[in-house]
Write a structure and sequence with these properties.
With 191 residues, the chain is α/β, with parallel strands linked by helices. 33% of the residues lie in helices and 11% in strands. The chain has a single domain, classed as Rossmann fold (3-Layer(aba) Sandwich). The chain contains four helices and four strands, in the order αβαβαβαβ. A four-stranded parallel sheet has the order 2-1-3-4, with helices on one face. Strand 1, helix 2 and strand 2 form a beta-alpha-beta unit. The two termini are 34 Å apart.
């Protein structure tokens, strides 16, 4: 029986639903940031109201769908495992890179599919090498569950620098549960 033939556990359904809602929320945030093109100005009265075109201002209105690259460890990989990528908002362009056991910068552990996926930084560098980041792109990250707390800040800063170099205008990082009894893959320490 293949992965696609297996029944979906309730916990995985909840995790997929949460992931899709989180991805949608980040996408809405990104879209709203694009829609607000100029700062709000104080208008004292009707005589001060002048149309933007009359003031010589121009605005760019996005006509292409927003491009979102989602890179995740197993926290969101269930979207791929159970064929749910079609549930992502079709009004947006999605590039999903969802792998089990992915780490931020330290070499990834061997995932449930039997191989070591690229790290988050390696994925971003591969995107940079492809030159495939459209203007206004958003990077949505859910990686770090397999990383050590002591490395997180420096790995985060390095990742954000690489994301900027790749051309991402916005980065959303999904929060983690803190109070968990979890053993990192390849480790006997509980974090």
């Amino acid at each position: 029986m293949g992965v696609a033939d297996m029944p979906i556990p309730l916990m995985m359904i909840r995790r997929m639903r949460t992931a899709i809602v989180a991805a949608g929320a980040v996408a809405l945030l990104a879209v709203s940031a694009v829609v607000v093109a100029a700062p709000v100005q104080q208008i004292d009265g009707p005589s001060d109201v002048v149309a933007p075109a009359e003031r010589g201002e121009s605005y760019t209105i996005r006509t292409k769908p927003l491009h979102i690259t989602m890179i995740s460890d197993s926290a969101l990989a269930a979207i791929r495992w159970f064929g749910a990528t079609g549930l992502l908002d079709s009004a947006l362009m999605w590039d999903t890179r969802l792998e089990s056991c992915r780490r931020i910068q330290f070499p990834s552990c061997r995932g449930r599919e039997g191989y070591r996926p690229l790290t988050l930084v390696e994925e971003v560098d591969a995107i940079l090498a492809d030159g495939a980041v459209p203007d206004g792109s958003v990077l949505l990250i859910s990686v770090g569950h397999n990383d050590w707390e002591s490395r997180f800040r420096s790995d985060l800063e390095h990742t954000l620098a690489r994301a900027r170099a790749a051309g991402f205008e916005r980065v959303g990082w999904i929060n983690y549960r803190e109070e968990v009894d979890y053993v990192l893959p390849g480790s006997s320490d509980r974090t």
